[in-house]
Write a structure and sequence with these properties.
It contains 4 helices and no strands. The chain is mostly helical.
Amino acid sequence: MSSTLDSLSAGVQVGAMLPLLTAVVQRPAWPAKVKRCVAVAAALIAGVLTVAVDSGWSQFQNGTLTTLTIVSVLVTAQSSYELLWKPTRIAPAIESATSPKATAEAG
């Protein structure tokens, strides 16, 4: 039971902060569908890395805990973005700040 709670806790912690890291990569001009795909892919990769770091590579033999951790990262990342990072405009501000600026001469 303890390992299940540890895995869930690790997934939630990573997922809560993941939208801020994803915002560094995303661009404001990208369509919503592309942003969603990038966010889901990042959450899946972060979930796998969370399992590996938190429990070691041998943890992948336990499919239930692996799935639980990956899903908790995905669900928490999407929820925290919609409920916290997007309404406070923190994630969109990071997207804008880290996006290459178009110059007037480039036209």
